[in-house]
Amino acid sequence: MGVVVIKFVRITPAHTFWLKVSLHITSLSLLCVTYYQAFTDQLGADPVKAILHFTGIGAFNLLLLSLLISPLAKYCRQGQLVTLRRPIGLYAFTYAASHFSSYLLFELQLEWPLLLSELIKRPYITVGFAALLILSLLTATSTKSIQKRMGRTWQKTHNWVYVASLLVALHYLWSVKSEIIQPIIYALVLLVLLASRKAKFLKPIKSALNKRANKRTKTQQSKKKLA
Ligand code: HEM
Question: What is the rounded average pLDDT of the residues 51-80?
Fold first, then answer.
Protein backbone atom coordinates (compact mmCIF):
# COMPACT_ATOMS: atom_id res chain seq x y z
CA MET A 1 0.00 0.00 0.00
CA GLY A 2 2.76 2.45 1.09
CA VAL A 3 4.84 1.62 -2.00
CA VAL A 4 1.78 2.12 -4.26
CA VAL A 5 1.21 5.60 -2.73
CA ILE A 6 4.92 6.50 -3.16
CA LYS A 7 4.70 5.39 -6.80
CA PHE A 8 1.81 7.72 -7.64
CA VAL A 9 2.67 10.77 -5.53
CA ARG A 10 5.57 12.92 -6.73
CA ILE A 11 7.94 13.37 -3.78
CA THR A 12 9.23 16.96 -3.71
CA PRO A 13 12.03 18.59 -1.63
CA ALA A 14 9.26 19.96 0.66
CA HIS A 15 8.10 16.37 1.39
CA THR A 16 11.63 15.18 2.18
CA PHE A 17 12.17 18.27 4.38
CA TRP A 18 9.20 17.24 6.56
CA LEU A 19 10.26 13.59 6.49
CA LYS A 20 13.69 14.69 7.80
CA VAL A 21 12.06 16.81 10.52
CA SER A 22 9.95 13.78 11.60
CA LEU A 23 13.07 11.59 11.56
CA HIS A 24 14.97 14.03 13.83
CA ILE A 25 12.04 14.38 16.25
CA THR A 26 11.25 10.64 16.43
CA SER A 27 14.84 9.37 16.70
CA LEU A 28 15.99 11.93 19.27
CA SER A 29 12.85 11.90 21.42
CA LEU A 30 12.75 8.06 21.60
CA LEU A 31 16.42 8.00 22.64
CA CYS A 32 15.92 10.72 25.30
CA VAL A 33 12.73 9.14 26.67
CA THR A 34 14.44 5.72 26.99
CA TYR A 35 17.42 7.14 28.92
CA TYR A 36 15.05 9.23 31.07
CA GLN A 37 13.04 6.09 31.90
CA ALA A 38 16.25 4.20 32.71
CA PHE A 39 17.48 6.92 35.10
CA THR A 40 14.08 7.23 36.79
CA ASP A 41 13.76 3.46 37.30
CA GLN A 42 10.92 2.95 34.83
CA LEU A 43 12.56 0.33 32.60
CA GLY A 44 11.89 -2.80 34.62
CA ALA A 45 14.22 -5.04 36.63
CA ASP A 46 17.21 -4.75 34.25
CA PRO A 47 17.41 -1.21 32.80
CA VAL A 48 20.89 -1.78 31.29
CA LYS A 49 19.64 -4.77 29.30
CA ALA A 50 16.59 -2.73 28.21
CA ILE A 51 18.80 0.15 27.00
CA LEU A 52 21.15 -2.22 25.15
CA HIS A 53 18.13 -3.85 23.52
CA PHE A 54 16.50 -0.54 22.51
CA THR A 55 19.67 1.10 21.12
CA GLY A 56 20.91 -2.12 19.43
CA ILE A 57 17.61 -2.89 17.69
CA GLY A 58 17.13 0.83 16.92
CA ALA A 59 20.55 1.02 15.23
CA PHE A 60 19.88 -2.14 13.18
CA ASN A 61 16.39 -0.91 12.11
CA LEU A 62 17.84 2.42 10.96
CA LEU A 63 20.68 0.68 9.13
CA LEU A 64 18.18 -1.52 7.26
CA LEU A 65 16.02 1.54 6.51
CA SER A 66 19.06 3.34 5.03
CA LEU A 67 19.70 0.30 2.81
CA LEU A 68 16.05 0.28 1.68
CA ILE A 69 16.13 3.88 0.40
CA SER A 70 18.07 3.32 -2.87
CA PRO A 71 16.06 0.31 -4.17
CA LEU A 72 12.81 2.05 -3.16
CA ALA A 73 13.82 5.30 -4.91
CA LYS A 74 14.77 3.33 -8.03
CA TYR A 75 11.63 1.16 -8.07
CA CYS A 76 9.26 4.10 -7.44
CA ARG A 77 11.31 6.51 -9.60
CA GLN A 78 11.54 8.98 -6.72
CA GLY A 79 15.12 10.30 -6.82
CA GLN A 80 14.32 12.82 -4.09
CA LEU A 81 14.06 9.95 -1.55
CA VAL A 82 17.85 9.44 -1.80
CA THR A 83 18.40 12.65 0.23
CA LEU A 84 17.00 10.78 3.26
CA ARG A 85 19.79 8.18 3.20
CA ARG A 86 22.43 10.36 4.92
CA PRO A 87 20.35 11.50 7.96
CA ILE A 88 19.03 7.94 8.45
CA GLY A 89 22.61 6.60 8.30
CA LEU A 90 23.74 9.25 10.81
CA TYR A 91 21.00 8.20 13.24
CA ALA A 92 21.98 4.53 12.77
CA PHE A 93 25.47 5.56 13.90
CA THR A 94 24.09 7.69 16.80
CA TYR A 95 22.09 4.71 18.10
CA ALA A 96 25.05 2.33 17.64
CA ALA A 97 27.36 4.77 19.48
CA SER A 98 24.82 5.08 22.34
CA HIS A 99 24.60 1.25 22.44
CA PHE A 100 28.38 0.93 22.77
CA SER A 101 28.68 3.83 25.27
CA SER A 102 25.91 2.34 27.46
CA TYR A 103 27.70 -1.02 27.45
CA LEU A 104 31.02 0.61 28.35
CA LEU A 105 29.53 2.90 30.98
CA PHE A 106 26.84 0.79 32.67
CA GLU A 107 27.97 -2.80 32.10
CA LEU A 108 31.77 -2.42 32.25
CA GLN A 109 31.83 0.70 34.50
CA LEU A 110 34.41 2.29 32.17
CA GLU A 111 36.99 -0.45 32.90
CA TRP A 112 39.04 -0.32 29.70
CA PRO A 113 41.10 -3.51 30.43
CA LEU A 114 37.77 -5.34 30.82
CA LEU A 115 36.69 -4.06 27.38
CA LEU A 116 39.91 -5.42 25.91
CA SER A 117 39.37 -8.85 27.48
CA GLU A 118 35.69 -8.88 26.33
CA LEU A 119 36.85 -8.04 22.79
CA ILE A 120 39.25 -11.00 22.86
CA LYS A 121 37.00 -13.48 24.71
CA ARG A 122 33.59 -12.84 23.13
CA PRO A 123 33.40 -13.07 19.33
CA TYR A 124 30.01 -11.29 19.20
CA ILE A 125 31.60 -8.24 20.90
CA THR A 126 34.54 -8.35 18.45
CA VAL A 127 32.17 -8.46 15.48
CA GLY A 128 30.00 -5.62 16.93
CA PHE A 129 33.12 -3.52 17.50
CA ALA A 130 34.28 -4.05 13.91
CA ALA A 131 30.83 -2.96 12.66
CA LEU A 132 30.96 0.15 14.86
CA LEU A 133 34.43 1.06 13.53
CA ILE A 134 33.14 0.85 9.94
CA LEU A 135 30.05 2.93 10.79
CA SER A 136 32.33 5.55 12.44
CA LEU A 137 34.47 5.76 9.30
CA LEU A 138 31.37 6.14 7.10
CA THR A 139 29.96 8.86 9.40
CA ALA A 140 33.27 10.75 9.43
CA THR A 141 33.37 10.75 5.62
CA SER A 142 29.67 11.47 5.04
CA THR A 143 29.84 15.25 4.40
CA LYS A 144 29.49 16.69 0.89
CA SER A 145 32.94 18.36 1.02
CA ILE A 146 34.71 15.10 1.98
CA GLN A 147 32.70 13.25 -0.70
CA LYS A 148 34.01 15.76 -3.30
CA ARG A 149 37.59 15.50 -2.05
CA MET A 150 37.56 11.68 -2.05
CA GLY A 151 36.23 11.47 -5.61
CA ARG A 152 35.85 7.91 -6.85
CA THR A 153 37.14 6.28 -3.66
CA TRP A 154 34.17 7.72 -1.72
CA GLN A 155 31.68 5.23 -3.23
CA LYS A 156 34.12 2.35 -2.74
CA THR A 157 34.57 3.36 0.93
CA HIS A 158 30.82 3.68 1.45
CA ASN A 159 30.21 0.22 0.00
CA TRP A 160 31.64 -0.99 3.34
CA VAL A 161 28.15 -0.36 4.74
CA TYR A 162 27.26 -3.81 3.34
CA VAL A 163 30.10 -5.43 5.33
CA ALA A 164 29.04 -3.48 8.45
CA SER A 165 25.42 -4.62 8.15
CA LEU A 166 26.46 -8.27 7.69
CA LEU A 167 28.65 -7.96 10.82
CA VAL A 168 25.70 -6.48 12.75
CA ALA A 169 23.45 -9.38 11.66
CA LEU A 170 26.15 -11.81 12.88
CA HIS A 171 26.58 -9.85 16.14
CA TYR A 172 22.83 -10.09 16.77
CA LEU A 173 22.65 -13.82 15.94
CA TRP A 174 25.65 -14.53 18.19
CA SER A 175 24.41 -12.39 21.10
CA VAL A 176 21.18 -14.32 21.69
CA LYS A 177 21.04 -17.50 23.72
CA SER A 178 17.75 -19.10 22.69
CA GLU A 179 15.36 -16.61 21.01
CA ILE A 180 16.84 -17.11 17.55
CA ILE A 181 13.73 -16.35 15.42
CA GLN A 182 13.96 -12.52 15.48
CA PRO A 183 17.70 -12.33 14.58
CA ILE A 184 17.05 -14.82 11.74
CA ILE A 185 14.21 -12.63 10.40
CA TYR A 186 16.52 -9.58 10.54
CA ALA A 187 19.29 -11.51 8.71
CA LEU A 188 16.80 -12.59 6.00
CA VAL A 189 15.55 -9.01 5.51
CA LEU A 190 19.18 -7.88 5.15
CA LEU A 191 19.90 -10.64 2.60
CA VAL A 192 16.87 -9.55 0.54
CA LEU A 193 18.10 -5.93 0.59
CA LEU A 194 21.61 -7.03 -0.43
CA ALA A 195 20.20 -9.28 -3.17
CA SER A 196 18.49 -6.21 -4.68
CA ARG A 197 22.03 -4.87 -5.26
CA LYS A 198 23.42 -8.07 -6.76
CA ALA A 199 24.47 -6.27 -9.96
CA LYS A 200 26.71 -4.01 -7.82
CA PHE A 201 28.40 -7.03 -6.18
CA LEU A 202 28.69 -9.00 -9.41
CA LYS A 203 30.25 -6.10 -11.39
CA PRO A 204 33.73 -6.19 -9.74
CA ILE A 205 33.75 -10.03 -9.84
CA LYS A 206 32.81 -10.01 -13.56
CA SER A 207 35.44 -7.38 -14.43
CA ALA A 208 38.11 -9.32 -12.45
CA LEU A 209 37.18 -12.53 -14.33
CA ASN A 210 37.23 -10.66 -17.67
CA LYS A 211 40.67 -9.20 -16.87
CA ARG A 212 42.01 -12.70 -16.05
CA ALA A 213 40.50 -14.15 -19.24
CA ASN A 214 42.01 -11.31 -21.34
CA LYS A 215 45.42 -11.83 -19.72
CA ARG A 216 45.25 -15.60 -20.43
CA THR A 217 44.37 -15.07 -24.13
CA LYS A 218 47.20 -12.54 -24.48
CA THR A 219 49.80 -14.96 -23.01
CA GLN A 220 48.45 -17.78 -25.20
CA GLN A 221 48.72 -15.53 -28.29
CA SER A 222 52.30 -14.49 -27.45
CA LYS A 223 53.24 -18.15 -26.82
CA LYS A 224 51.81 -19.06 -30.25
CA LYS A 225 53.82 -16.24 -31.86
CA LEU A 226 57.02 -17.50 -30.23
CA ALA A 227 56.38 -21.15 -31.28
C1 HEM B 1 31.61 -2.25 20.29
C2 HEM B 1 30.47 -2.43 19.77
C3 HEM B 1 29.34 -3.19 20.40
C4 HEM B 1 29.22 -3.75 21.65
C5 HEM B 1 30.24 -3.77 22.76
C6 HEM B 1 27.91 -4.35 21.74
C7 HEM B 1 27.40 -5.01 22.85
C8 HEM B 1 26.20 -5.64 22.90
C9 HEM B 1 25.68 -6.33 24.05
C10 HEM B 1 26.38 -6.50 25.39
C11 HEM B 1 24.46 -6.82 23.71
C12 HEM B 1 23.48 -7.58 24.63
C13 HEM B 1 23.68 -9.06 24.54
C14 HEM B 1 22.81 -9.74 25.60
O15 HEM B 1 21.59 -9.46 25.66
O16 HEM B 1 23.36 -10.52 26.35
C17 HEM B 1 24.21 -6.45 22.35
C18 HEM B 1 23.08 -6.77 21.64
C19 HEM B 1 22.78 -6.24 20.42
N20 HEM B 1 23.54 -5.38 19.66
FE21 HEM B 1 25.39 -4.75 20.12
N22 HEM B 1 27.25 -4.14 20.55
C23 HEM B 1 28.09 -3.42 19.71
C24 HEM B 1 27.83 -2.98 18.44
C25 HEM B 1 26.61 -3.05 17.85
C26 HEM B 1 26.24 -2.38 16.62
C27 HEM B 1 27.21 -1.51 15.79
C28 HEM B 1 24.93 -2.69 16.39
C29 HEM B 1 24.01 -2.22 15.30
C30 HEM B 1 24.27 -1.31 14.39
C31 HEM B 1 24.49 -3.58 17.45
C32 HEM B 1 23.24 -4.16 17.53
C33 HEM B 1 22.84 -5.04 18.52
C34 HEM B 1 21.57 -5.74 18.53
C35 HEM B 1 20.49 -5.65 17.46
C36 HEM B 1 21.54 -6.49 19.71
C37 HEM B 1 20.41 -7.40 20.20
C38 HEM B 1 19.55 -6.60 21.13
C39 HEM B 1 18.59 -7.48 21.93
O40 HEM B 1 17.78 -8.18 21.33
O41 HEM B 1 18.64 -7.42 23.17
N42 HEM B 1 25.52 -3.76 18.33
N43 HEM B 1 25.26 -5.73 21.88
Answer: 96
Cβ–Cβ under 8 Å, residues 73 and 81:
yes
If you average pLDDT over every residue of the chain, what do you get?
93
User: Which pLDDT score, from 0 to 100, does residue 212 have?
Assistant: 87
Ligand 1 atom with least separation from CA of 132: 27
Residue type, 101: S
Q: For the chain, give every domain's residue range.
A: 2-196
pLDDT for res 71? 94
Return d(Cα 62, Cα 134) in angstroms, integer: 15
Nearest-CA residue for ligand 1 atom 2 is: 129
**Cα 128 to ligand 1 centroid, rounded to whole Å:** 7
Residue 49 CA to its chain's centroid (Å): 22
Mapped onto helix, strand or coil, the DSSP state of residue 160 is helix
Burial of 177 (0-12, 13-18, 19+ CB in 10 A): exposed
**52 CA from centroid of ligand 1 (Å):** 6
Distance 118 CA to ligand 1 centre (A): 13
- How far apart CA 222 and CA 120 sit, in angstroms, is 52
Tell me, what's the pLDDT at 131? 98
pTM value? 0.89
Cα–ligand 1 centroid distance for 91 (angstroms): 16
Q: Is the CB of 65 under 6 A from ligand 1?
A: no
How far apart are alpha carbons 180 and 171 in whole angstroms?
Answer: 12
Ligand 1 close to Cβ of residue 190 (< 6 A): no
Helix axes 198-226, 181-195, angle to 10 degrees: 50
